[in-house]
Amino acid sequence: MGSEEKRDGLYQVTSSQRIISSCCGAFLTSLLVTPLDVVKVRLQAQSNPFFKALYCALFLSGKSFLESDSLADHICVYENGTSKTWRKRSVQFTGMVDAFVKIAQREGVRALWSGLPPALAVSVPTAVIYFTCYDQLRDAFISKIGEDNVYIPLIAGGIARLGAATIISPVEMIRTRMQFRRLTYKQLSACISSNMAKDGWLSLWKGWGPTVLRDVPFSALYWCNYEYFKKRLCKRSGKHEPTFFITFPSGAAAGSIAALLTLPFDVIKTHKQTELWEFESTHFLFLFYSASQPRSVPIWKVMKRIVAENGFTGLFAGIVPRLTKIAPACAIMISTYEYGKSFFRRLNKDRDIKNH
What we know:
Layout: E1 6-7, E2 10-11, H1 15-46, H2 49-60, E3 64-68, E4 73-79, E5 83-88, H3 96-107, H4 116-145, H5 151-180, H6 185-199, H7 208-237, H8 244-274, H9 277-281, H10 283-289, H11 299-310, H12 319-355
Antiparallel strand pairs: 1-2, 3-4, 4-5
Helix pairs in contact: 1-3, 1-4, 1-12, 4-5, 5-7, 7-8, 8-11, 8-12
């Protein structure tokens, strides 16, 4: 049968069938967990000490004053002695539930799905590259060194994620910025064009370093734990092929463990990708600080700044929405992917029987 030959008594799926399975999983996962991702990004970004320093600088400049309403503070900046421009400061959230409520009240329920188109633009090709590469690498390693080696999912998962993260990094940056602040596509395009004019094409890969530092260990830990939990549950239930009730809890548990251990790098990634956003998205801030816009700082300095301003717990900002998002996201994605492969295995088997 060529690419559909049997291994361990199971009919194998083709690359195109893997792509279809991963696309379905990515679409369903993005649709269900994007609100949690929006809340996570807002909670992480509001703790960025860069924004706090900027806010204080404007207030102390003598050209602004502070007003408050029941929901947010406002900065009023006078220009040319007469006209004034109002600038609302980002809403401060006390937790995940508070963020959900305030975003829905202030910006509308649809804002919880802000960034969904680029989220799909990220998740679908990432899932195709990532899951297909993982399966191919895993099968290649198994054929060379045997199936019982525990390092196979660790290595295959890390390599697959490194490639996917590098290819998709520019779209991931756009998605993060859209979730941090609700913008029109015209505003977003103008800001990205400004970045590219100043820093070149490499500006599209801002945050690649901490993204890789987060995603590669996450992927390695995830697949190692997932394969372990899956094998244990299959053995306990006497199943040769994992069912939904095996893949769902295995994916949720493996994703939660990996998310907890790699959360600091997720916080750093969000800080680096949004550190210049206030300057670029607000005209009067650009006028005030165009001569002294900060350069992108190294990862270790960002980490040091977060700890200095917010303590060690600042590295775990957004832990509740991240874990709340990751567990179901991993469970939904891997369950859909495995179900898709099981469906195509049965389809291939039935077709083979009919042909013979």
